[in-house]
Request: fold
Amino acid sequence: MTPEQRPFEVQREVKSASKHAAEHEPLGDQRGSEQAGGPDPRMGPFERALDILRRECLTHYGERLISIVVFGSVGRQTARPDSDIDVLLVADPLPDGRMARVREFDTIEKAFGERWLAMYPDAGVPDLSPVFKTPSEVARGSLLFLDMVHDAWIVYDKDDFFARHLKALTERLESLGARRVFYRGSWYWDIKPDLKPGEVFEL
Reply:
C-alpha cells in the first residue's frame, strides 16, 4: 500500500501557537514588538502577522471571540512570501450575513495594517482572507473543515472549542475509513471507500 493509498490515520498536525502562550497573551514575549519598538526576532513573518491579528481580534471582539484558526498554505507551512492568510474566525454573536461580518472585520483589518506598517514600513501588508462562523454554524459542519484536519494552525481557541470539533471530525473520518488521496500535487478525500449503491451516511 502506497502512502497515497493508506487509510486515514489519526495523526493530524494541529500547529497551536497557544502552546507557548496563554489565551490572552501575545505569541511572543511581552517585551516584544510593542514595548521594544521592533518585531520579536524569534518569530517568523507569518507568526508576527498572526500575533497582530490575534491582538486586534481580541481587542475588537472581546469576549465574543471563540477561535482563530489558520488554514490553507500558511496552515500547511507551504506559503510563499506573497501568500494571503486564510483564517477562520469563530465568534458569538456575529452579524447576520457575510457582508455585515466583513464590514465589522474592516476595523480589525485596518488596525492590522497600521500595526504591520509600523513594524515593516517598507513591506506590503499581508492579505487576510477571513471566513466567519458562529459556534452553532461550526457545529453544523462544513467541507472546509476537511482541509483543517491535518493542517490547521490554531492561534486562539477559547476552552479548546475548535480543537474539540476537529477531534470529533477526525474520529468520524476514521470510523468511515476515510482517506486523503494525493494526486498530481493536490489531494481529495475518499470519505467512505466502501460506499454501496443507495447507501446514505452522515459526516
Remarks:
- Residues 1-37 have pLDDT under 50 and may be disordered.
- Strands lie at 65-71, 85-91, 128-133, 153-157, 179-183, 186-190.
